[in-house]
Write a structure and sequence with these properties.
With 306 residues, this protein is of the alpha/beta class. It contains 13 helices and 10 strands. The protein has a 6-stranded parallel β-sheet with strand order 7-6-5-8-9-10, sandwiched between helices. Strand 1, helix 2 and strand 2 form a beta-alpha-beta unit.
Length: 306
């Protein structure tokens, strides 16, 4: 019964998309994953409209996997796309994940100077924040030697309900910290950091790579596709990141890692360079070029058939 209830809205949406496409006659349709992608892609493929999928994560999502054999091409955000059937691999093209203009601008900034002896750390949990960072990071800082924690500059995103307690914790420890629930200029904050502590969503990884900053990544556990774990693994393979499971991410583990980072700023700089080398700053242009190619190829097929 639940399956029927789920299918009916998809059928209705597919019919609505088909009617719309007959009216506006798109040159191409691009799906970016998730179930909202399914109806328009199904409608476009049945009408013969060129279709391209973009998979931002390092493992293909269920909706894109379902649609993969109905499209002309699959743009991928990471070098290796896991979970894709072998017979679909030839459809894949590495474009990277398009990033905002603010990210491109932030990428111009050099790795921050360390002449003042201050390690600049950015902690971000994605658009919704991550409570575990509010729980773990201040406790980790407290475990560090007093001299070490006095050489920290922390910028941390926390959920609105956590900001005050996190701010108070750093204040009690005498640590210079800025705590907000949202940073509109997050790419700038990334560029200003020596080290980023973050989740491992596709957008986060892409921005870290394009800007070129090393990271400690704590993938979100429990995801069916384990997409963040796959994203983090590929970024770590470049030498840019350390990946730690949430079950291992403890105050003691982090305190030790931060003390080690303070003692190896040259190592952080090398990891930053590795991150930047892995970044694809022209992902939007690559994706646009791929769309143009599949449209042109489709037109040539029509010309031959005609």
């Amino acid at each position: 019964m639940r399956r029927v209830q789920a299918i009916v809205p998809i059928i209705r949406a597919t019919r609505a998309a088909r009617r719309l496409f007959k009216k506006i006659r798109p040159c191409a349709v691009i799906g970016f994953g998730g179930y909202p992608t399914v109806p328009p892609v199904l409608a476009a493929s049945r009408l013969g409209v060129p279709v391209l999928l973009h998979e931002g994560n390092a493992v293909i999502g269920r909706a894109n996997r379902f649609l993969a054999d109905r499209v002309e091409a699959i743009a991928k955000g990471f070098e290796v796309l896991g979970g894709i059937p072998n017979n679909m691999a030839e459809k894949t093209h590495l474009t990277g994940n398009p990033v905002r203009p603010m990210v491109i601008e932030a990428a111009r900034a050099a790795f921050p100077d360390y002449s003042d002896g201050k390690l600049r750390i950015l902690v971000t949990g994605g658009s919704q924040g991550a409570r575990i960072f509010s729980d773990i990071v201040p406790d980790a800082i407290e475990l560090m030697p007093v001299a070490a924690r006095q050489k920290l500059l922390i910028t941390q995103q926390a959920r609105a309900e956590d900001t005050e307690r996190v701010r108070e914790a750093y204040g009690r420890l005498g640590v210079d910290a800025e705590i907000q629930s949202f940073f509109a200029d997050l790419p700038v904050r990334i560029a200003q950091a020596h080290l980023v502590i973050a989740r491992a969503g596709a957008s986060t990884i892409s921005e870290l790579a394009v800007i070129g900053r090393p990271a400690i990544l704590v993938p979100l556990p429990g995801a069916i596709d384990q997409d963040q774990a796959a994203n983090a693994e590929q970024f770590a393979a470049t030498g840019a990141a350390i990946v730690v499971a949430q079950s291992v991410f403890s105050p003691q583990w982090l305190a030790t890692s931060l003390v080690e980072a303070q003692a190896d700023m040259d190592g952080l700089a090398r990891r930053a360079a590795a991150a930047k080398q892995a970044g694809i700053a022209d992902a939007a242009e690559r994706l646009a070029d791929l769309v143009q190619r599949i449209v042109t190829n489709k037109e040539k097929i029509y010309e031959v058939a005609g």
